[in-house]
């Protein structure tokens, strides 16, 4: 009996030693990981584009609170992560351009009623910083130019810098439907698909995941900035390091691209269903950015093919703007691909969107005129941005 008891004691001791060793090893590794992440330069060296990296760098940069954000016109939002501040007037960005928002945080100073004006069709535009119009003034965005060109329509710019399609969907659900749009236009940038897979971008954000083929919203409510800073010390840097390595593995073997397209399609399906419920037409516009503007090839890129296949399979109107930008290049225009669009790129986009919407019967140039002859569409194919805004010449 005593031998059996001694055997159990020895077994328990071995298990206890093993557990203590594992705990000791975890503590050592955690301490090592914290040392790795302590200097900001080392964080930037070992980091990637994952949630952990972005969160750690955000805390190091904004440890004193939300007020030190790069974009001072954004505020914390418990569902979407961040939103546009209201009643901003002529706030200067880093490049010197001025921007404003109305009482509800929509770009520009125009206030909008719940319903559009009589005989007018309302178009709301969703998108990221290219739609919002970073680095251009309120009256130089493609949404503004489009509204000026279509006297039959009211165009509301609901673009928000840094948004993924997931946040655009939530914005549409929370605020966009209140304006009773006839058309919901989504400005599509390829990297917004990857934002749909991220839980931390410029700040914590919501994230949809697929469960049994259905979208499930996670990461809400988004914690306020002061809680993020306060809780950072309790977050395991060892888990952060593992997350960084896993993200790099996913990039190497291409699984993130597949995940991004799958979740993006599901988000678009939800947008489409919502538009059907409110009687609006969903339209996608592929916005060429960065190196896409320097690509002389007329062939569709993989990202353009993805959007084209989605639109064809769901019978959703979709317009690709790169041919219009390529046509402008052939005329000798030097397109700016180092950062956000300049006014002329916005004009090119507005010209192409005007042509597309009119030819699809989704807008008219004259309020109340719903009869657009095919010849009008043919003539629009030759439009240049200067026909939308005569002050801009080729």
Series of secondary-structure elements, N-terminal to C-terminal: HHHEEEEEHHEHEHEEHHHEHEHHHH
Q: What's the main sheet like?
A: 5 strands, parallel
Number of strands: 11
Question: Percent of residues in helical segments?
Answer: 40-55%
Q: Radius of gyration in whole Å, from Cα?
A: 25 Å
Examine the secondary-structure arrangement and name the CATH architecture.
3-Layer(aba) Sandwich
Uncertain spans:
66-70, 379-394
Report the structural category. alpha/beta
Form type: elongated
The CATH superfamily label reads SGNH hydrolase
CATH class: Alpha Beta
Strand content: 5-15%
**CATH fold-level name:** Rossmann fold
Structure description:
The chain is α/β, with parallel strands linked by helices. The chain contains 15 helices and 11 strands. It has a single domain, classed as Rossmann fold (3-Layer(aba) Sandwich). A 5-stranded parallel beta sheet has the order 6-5-7-10-11, with helices on both faces. Helix 11 (302-314) links the parallel strand 10 and strand 11 (318-320). Helix 5 packs across helix 13 (343-359) and helix 6 runs parallel beside helix 10 (255-278). The longest helix is centred in the first third of the chain and has 36 residues, at 2-37. The model is unreliable at 66-70 and 379-394 (pLDDT under 50).
